[in-house]
């Protein structure tokens, strides 16, 4: 009788110790194990529509894309996989989304144990969890919060799918799938035609837009805003930076996409005014890591691709289901540029001073991420012979775990698919573990070298 609780206690102690001593190893190990398990399930005959086992590269790619909540596919999801296969993919999306928020919060708590009292209080005010021993409480809160939001989105989508002629059982299943995929920024669709038939349908697309946007904000922001819903002045600096930067990027992206695609006969031109506005808003939100599309991305102008590259590379909020370098990274670097232009010694926002160490981490994350994208792009250019614009789009989409594609993923050679698999894994686990590792490496030196300023520019 005591073996069960004892085993559970030892497992909890192991997780607690791993999160404290090696949070990066914990994140990498958990995600690798989940991907391996999902790959094995997708290779079972019951997972495919024709009953034939899926090739390893297709199963691994799909498992990685689902677990890292990316959305890139090498086979048509709604046609190739059976109902059981879609259920496995949905479970992988749910585990991946929960894992990202939970592990990112654990990394934040690990960092908070190694910084000063003031900063620790700021961190605890955002996460509402101050001790690594409260892992169970954190996980329960994340599960409850995400599930409530997903069910709410599904309940809004369900009647609309009924109106479109789907049977009640099918409508309920598709509503749930879209809701989970939207909140977790996964971009998977359960039907062959996807969301293209709903390109002008506000009732269908607006809940998905809201779900993707909220999911991209991150668990600390969602919880912090929920605790102080009627008092925005008490929101944490992280919440204020994440929300303002996210809204700004959505507005900017939507307006510029509309300007580029308004007269494009392959995308927006056939739509009426309301449909064009909705399609522009949808296209402005999805690069945050949503990955859904209502028009053929492959038919968009090259200028639009370049804009989407930039938006995907930034991604969403920290400790969220979104990928990219994160909006707070961009915000901190922009604030530093403004401070430098004004001649200010401190980087400030919303009445708070941002530590210099935070800027250093932001620069490191941005530079290393750009280097990874560069290396992966060179590899795919050598393997495929495709043009740079399409390769860069695919690489950034994989690294930022976004899922948008110009249509080349399924036709890539097998080695290139494995490159994208590695890229999705790095993009999901790499940025948060890198940021935590850099934040934890805080060496104190008694002797410091004399200061001398090199010439810049």
TrEMBL record:
Keywords assigned: Cell membrane, Ion transport, Membrane, Transmembrane, Transmembrane helix, Transport
Pfam families recorded: TrkH (PF02386)
TM stretches of this protein: 26-46, 84-111, 138-158, 202-229, 241-260, 310-338, 359-383, 418-440
Membrane topology type: Multi-pass membrane protein
Keyword DNA-binding: no
Source domain of life: Bacteria
Keyword Transmembrane among UniProt keywords: yes
Cellular localization per UniProt: Cell membrane
PANTHER family named among the record's database cross-references: KTR SYSTEM POTASSIUM UPTAKE PROTEIN B (PTHR32024:SF1), TRK SYSTEM POTASSIUM UPTAKE PROTEIN TRKG-RELATED (PTHR32024)
Protein name, entry field: TrkH family potassium uptake protein
